[in-house]
Specification:
By secondary structure, the chain is an all-alpha fold. It has one domain. Helices cover 85% and strands 0% of the residues. The protein has helices at residues 2-19, 24-49, 57-82, 87-116, 121-136, 139-155. Helix 2 (24-49) packs antiparallel against helix 3, helix 2 runs parallel beside helix 4 (87-116) and helix 3 runs antiparallel to helix 4 (87-116). The radius of gyration is 20 Å and the shape is flat.
């Protein structure tokens, strides 16, 4: 019985991998960054708490976050195929989403490493580049932050 279930799961996994073959590298990149964020987050928690007990809500939600990332990327690619758009269009849309995930997870990894290695100038520089300087050159995001700041001032 278990061998049939394993065969079925391997078959389904093979079908999914084949369908998403054009964006396999992107999905692998998201998984690797998620893994690095998970490991650095656990180590950061260990350093802050002093023990290996994992009770963090962020830890539990990280798996949900990973599922949402993968689901959104896969749905984008699937919808592009169903709309009979070119494969290049579907891959381009998935790449935009993956680069957003790379930015979010990369910043999180650097923040975790800053807790693990406080005072490391290289990590502080990378964090500054990602969280301050990089945002200056993303026009849409800088406009959003300006607009958000104006809304916050109006609320007071």
């Amino acid at each position: 019985m278990w061998s049939n279930i394993v065969k079925y799961l391997v078959f389904v996994a093979g079908c999914v991998l084949t369908y998403f073959e054009p964006i396999n590298f992107l999905l692998l990149l998201v998984i690797v960054l998620f893994g690095l964020d998970f490991v650095t987050g656990v180590l950061k928690s260990r350093k802050k708490c002093g023990h290996w007990t994992l009770r963090s809500k962020k830890l539990r939600w990280s798996f949900v976050k990973m599922f949402v990332y993968m689901f959104v990327i896969a749905c984008t690619f699937f919808i592009a195929k169903m709309m009979q758009l070119s494969e290049v269009t579907g891959i381009a849309a998935a790449k935009v989403e993956v680069w957003c995930v790379v930015y979010i997870e990369g910043l999180s990894i650097v923040e975790n490493l800053l807790v693990l290695f406080p005072g490391d100038r290289f990590l502080m520089f990378i964090h500054f580049l990602l969280s301050v300087e990089f945002l200056k050159y993303v026009p849409v995001l800088s406009n959003f932050l300006k607009e958000k700041g104006e809304d916050d001032d109006a609320d007071q």
